[in-house]
Amino acid sequence: MTLYVDTLVIFTYYEKMNNDKLTESQERYISSRIREEREDWQERQPHEKGQRKRSDFIKQVHSACPTSALKANSLENIENGRARVKLQDAIEISYALGISLTELITDMSHPFSSNPMIPEKTNVEVFLDQTSEDRMLSADWQAAYAMKFLNSLTQLEELIKKYPAHGLINESLAKDVKKTLLKNEISRKNQLRIYIAELEGNKETAEKLRKESEINVQHTSIKERNELTRQVNAQIERSKYVMLDTLYDMGFYGMTVPNHLLSRAKKAIQQSESRNISPHENSILDEIDTQTIFLSVSE
Fold first, then answer.
1. Is 0.70 surpassed by the pTM of this model?
2. Residue 122 forms beta bridges with which residues?
3. Residue 113, SS3 per DSSP
4. Long-range contacts of the stretch 275-278 (C-beta < 8 A, 24+)
5. How far is CA 88 from CA 9, 103, 200, 247, 289, in A?
6. Closest to 273 (Cα-Cα) out of 227, 239, 248
7. Residue 202's pLDDT is what?
8. I want to staple 65 with a disulfide (CB 3.0 to 4.6 A). Which of 92, 166, 277, 293 is the partner?
9. What is the 3-state secondary structure (H, E, C) of 185-227?
């Protein structure tokens, strides 16, 4: 069993508990999330009829955390809101469930709802802040769409921020792009060869192949900078359309995306189009389907 450490969640929770700032609604939310996750866990376990008691889950807690002092009556009080949830209890419960603290406090069946523990963020924002790629694979379709949308939006914003809107990318950025592209290409080619060399015990060959991947780009020509600028703009376009396609595919569910995220998306589209379309071309924001998505976003 793996312990997933969630720095933001732990410190937020710890601060609130220590300063006695946990509101009644936050207490209820955590209690209900623990109950939901515990019942879901027990539903998935092989059991005899009627054996879905809290005491059965407590055995799992003590198996995962032998020093745990959590008892069935304590868990009942926590789930029913009669007792406060201590950070240690939350860690032990999530560990026994095989999930992270982030997953415990984020209801990803409602990814775009405000998270009660960190109200300035939605559930999906908190989840993505703290969750590694491999933990996202088990998400349901609503969560998967929400994460795909937010990831593509973030990537689009980062590309726009890093690269200039007009003209060629400068020499320094061109070197970075070229280095990344070449390194990725060589790494793909050499990966199997390095693996085979290591299996054969040929450390010298393996080391040589690794060094080939450490590209040091000293100069980029104007022709290269033109091509790299084209590739950057193409990546920006791809990110824009992945984000929009995700919103289209959500259908009515897309109406749950909060305005602050839609505002970010609209702004990113406008900035991306400032570099890629001529004044006489129509913006994708002028299309009826796109207008419907951003209907609630004021100028």
1. no
2. 114
3. coil
4. 275/165, 275/166, 275/233, 275/236, 276/233, 276/236, 276/237
5. 13, 16, 48, 39, 48
6. 239
7. 82
8. 92
9. HHHHHHHHHHHHHHHCCCHHHHHHHHHHCCCCCCCCCHHHHHH
